Amino acid sequence: MLNLILCAVLALGNFVDYKHIVVAFEENVDVISSEVDAKIVAVSKDAKIIERYPGALNFIVVELADSSELAANQFIQAVKSVEGVKYAEPVMLYHKLGKYTPNDPYWNYQWGPRYIHADTAWGLELGSDDVIVAVIDEGVQYDHPDLASRFGPLRGYDFVDNDSDPMPVSEQEDHGTHVAGIIAAEIDNSIGIAGLAQVKLYAVRVLDESGTGTTVQIANGIQWAVDAGARILNMSLGGPTPSLLVLNACNYAWSHGAVIIAAAGNDGADSIDYPARYDSVIAVTAIEPD
User: Fold this and answer.
1) Residue 98 CA to its chain's centroid (Å)
2) What is the pLDDT of residues 163-218, one digit of tens each?
3) What's the pLDDT tens digit per position in 248-261?
4) Residue 9 — very low, low, confident or very high, per pLDDT cuts 50/70/90?
5) Cβ atoms within 10 Å of 124's Cβ, excluding its own
6) Burial of 111: CB neighbours in 10 Å, binned 0-12, 13-18, 19+
7) How are beta strands 59-63 and 16-25 bridged, if at all?
8) What's the alpha-carbon Rg for the chain, to the nearest Å?
9) Which residues, in sequence order, are bridge partners of residue 239?
10) Are residues 103 and 190 in contact, defined by beta-carbon separation less than 8 angstroms?
11) Which residues contact 140 (CB under 8 A, 6 or more apart)?
12) Could you give the angle at which helices 69-79 and 34-43 cross, rounded to 10 degrees?
């Protein structure tokens, strides 16, 4: 489950410059000529050639007025149909490759993140407050010193007690806090563990202190999380029986662009529990050591 969350957080936006487009031409096209200027203006009056590189690679760099991914894709599709153009693509951003070692005291004991080389990924990206992960689970101790910075004014919702406070009701109710810490515990604060991604969290309490929740609570929790802006939903829960209500909730989340991750099970069985078994959900299981 760890590597899927990390992949979801590492957005392409950090590696692509959509404002600047490389346009390469056939060998017989002089990229210094006014003919090339005319070709670009014909595609977009707002596009401006800012660099020209004649020779073996024979390309130009075009600057767009709009830096959005949509504008870049529209320009690329249009310019590729121009006579003499070989290819077009955004300018890509490459980064030095290295590891980021956190100062959190239990980092050396975190087998999972170390196994998937999270520290190498952190050399590129630690996470973003623009990404919201909903922990659909037991309550989460949102004032924990390793988690407090990961919550905003809207902490989540409690569908067990039907109130806006998703704090656990007893010390035994610690599963949600444990999961939230693995996902997003503050990194480099010299406390506890290093979370996988520095994202914002919602605590969506759908399991009571015994670790049990109804399909009504779970489905409502899924819908609430999506409507509140979460785009990654983590559910370390499940059961052997399908539910049309939960299926519809998962499909609702998927249709709204959310990534839904659920545990395949926790007993070593060959079968996959629900909701992880649904097509709209990514099922995740353990790979040692345990």
Assistant:
1) 21
2) 999 999 999 999 999 999 999 999 999 999 999 999 999 999 999 999 999 999 99
3) 999 999 999 999 99
4) very low
5) 15
6) exposed
7) antiparallel
8) 24
9) 274
10) yes
11) 147, 156, 166, 167, 168, 176, 177, 179, 180, 201, 203, 205
12) 120
**Second CATH level (architecture) for the domain 15-92:** 2-Layer Sandwich (3.30)
Residues 6+ away with beta carbon under 8 Å from 266: none
- The 10 Å Cβ neighbour count of residue 280 is 17
- Residue 213 to residues 21, 158, 238: CA-CA distances in angstroms? 51, 11, 10
Assign a CATH topology to domain 98-284: Rossmann fold (3.40.50)
Distance of CA 15 to the CA centre of its chain: 14
Average pLDDT over residues 149-161: 97
Question: At which residue do the structure tokens 């203006």 appear?
Answer: 41
Residues 6+ apart with CB under 8 A from 48: 62, 63
Which residue type is seen at 104? D
The position carrying tokens 């170390």 is 114
For the chain, the domains span 15-92, 98-284
Cβ atoms 238, 265 nearer than 8 A: yes
